[in-house]
Design a protein that fits this description.
alpha/beta, three-stranded parallel β-sheet
Length: 321
């Protein structure tokens, strides 16, 4: 009887809803923001959607000029957790507004309003108070990158025997439902002169790319059309340089990222040096309802541990009896 009671209690605890690790999920971030950097941000080109900078804004640009399908957000178009050290004007369009936790060295043009807060005033930050950057942005996106990296590959890259290789190489997902998953090295990716991505009926594709440095020189032939359905997960890269147009969300938690032509999609990186535009192409993939790899939340793990401890106590008492 006691054992059945303990099992019932454990089942109830295990079924309890997981506590959210932070105020935003990774999916929500990738749908609301165009660029998230843990360190410094610099650009001489437009960022069409929202930007949040964990370090300093050291180079100016125009923000929120074409947010497109970006979801609504509590955050303003430009949020800087450090300071804006650039002396050139920062332009924030479409009433997106700006929040800079530190100081601003140069002028900031908030075209269309949207509110502004520099160093805590004169307007309240949005959201107010400004939440922890590490908990709100770094933790969910880093966790997503780590979880995607654990997914089992179900699709493969075409090799050198492909007709016409390395030109016009079709990267085709295997047939089936759900996500296509590719495990790729930077050497394999660098071998293409031009390529396209064919989802082959899948809802999207995950490319887990290993290697510390990648220079993207290939022509991505359908970068724009697949941008919202592809995630490039550069799991251990420290340096990325996109010299041609790129399509899809880029997760590069450890990398200094540079581009020379547009990236069609959201970017999460250690730092960003923009020589080309960032185009707002928020992902259509949704990881909110079920993780790519089922990983219990900390609260669920604690409840799981309590359930096991309860079972152990009941069994020890039974043995003693």
């Amino acid at each position: 009887m006691q054992l059945r009671s303990a099992l019932a209690a454990f089942a109830f605890l295990a079924a309890a809803p997981a506590v959210q690790a932070g105020p935003l999920t990774a999916t929500e971030i990738l749908r609301q923001f165009n660029v998230v950097t843990t360190g410094n941000f610099s650009s001489n080109s437009d960022v069409e959607g929202r930007t949040v900078v964990g370090g300093n804004a050291v180079g100016g640009a125009t923000f929120f000029n074409n947010p497109g399908a970006a979801e609504a957000s509590e955050f303003r178009a430009l949020t800087v957790y450090g300071s804006a050290t650039v002396s050139n004007p920062l332009n924030v369009n479409n009433g997106g507004g700006v929040t800079i936790a530190g100081t601003a060295a140069g002028p900031i043009n908030t075209n269309g309003g949207g509110g502004r807060s520099i160093g805590g005033g004169p307007d309240a930050a949005a959201p107010n108070p400004l939440p922890s950057f590490a908990e709100t942005f770094v933790a969910p996106l880093s966790a997503l990158s780590a979880e995607l990296a654990l997914m089992t590959a179900n699709s493969t890259l075409p090799g050198a025997a492909t007709p016409g290789f390395p030109n016009n190489v079709p990267i085709t997902a295997s047939a089936g439902e759900g996500l296509a998953v590719f495990n790729v090295t930077v050497a394999e990716l660098s071998a293409f002169a031009s390529f396209s991505v064919n989802l082959n009926g899948r809802e999207g594709a995950i490319f887990n790319v290993t290697g510390t440095s990648y220079t993207g020189q290939a022509n991505f032939l359908n970068a724009t059309s697949v941008a919202r359905d592809v995630i490039w997960n550069f799991v251990d890269a420290t340096s990325l340089d996109f010299q041609r147009q790129w399509g899809g969300t880029v997760l590069a938690p450890q990398a200094a990222v540079r581009n020379h032509t547009p990236i069609e999609g959201s970017l999460f990186a250690a730092s960003y040096d923009g020589r080309g535009e960032m185009h707002s192409q928020p992902t259509r993939l949704d990881f909110r309802s079920s993780d790519p790899v089922p990983v219990p939340e900390p609260a669920s793990l604690a409840l799981f541990g309590l359930g096991l401890a309860g079972l152990g106590l009941v069994r020890r008492r039974q043995r003693a009896a």
